[in-house]
Amino acid sequence: xxxxxxxxxxxxxxxxxxxxxxxxxxxxxxxxxxxxxxxxxxxxxxxxxxxxxxxxxxxxxxxxxxxxxxxxxxxxxxxxxxxxxxxxxxxxxxxxxxxxxxxxxxxxxxxxxxxxxxxxxxxxxxxxxxxxxxxxxxxxxxxxxxxxxxxxxxxx
Length: 156
Hints:
The protein has 156 residues and is mainly alpha-helical. It folds into two domains: 4-64 and 141-155, no CATH class; 79-128. It contains six helices and two strands, in the order αβααααβα.
């Protein structure tokens, strides 16, 4: 016997499933849960809800990393030159401050600034799809057999 809360949860899940894009393996597990619910095992609604939540989180954090609203910048190789100039200015200021231990610390800081600028120029020159090769299979919309189960459960 289903409770009104479980029916409401199932109805919410069915609406959500229609709009999701998940990995094919996740759709397989969801199909198994839906088949059990369709067969009368209303206790599987909780497991279905948990799996849908986990699949959405996995999809959000395991996909290709993209800057959401970050505007792309043009590629430049001037960044190491800027880092070298800034590092040189730091060394010059360190020499004017008295040299010795201060100069050694400022030389290390200047090399660090140059290193960061050089590393930043290497990142800017990566091809745009470099992370997508490691992402695995792309998420897919709801498969037909799952959509049929969702529609059948929505009518009951």
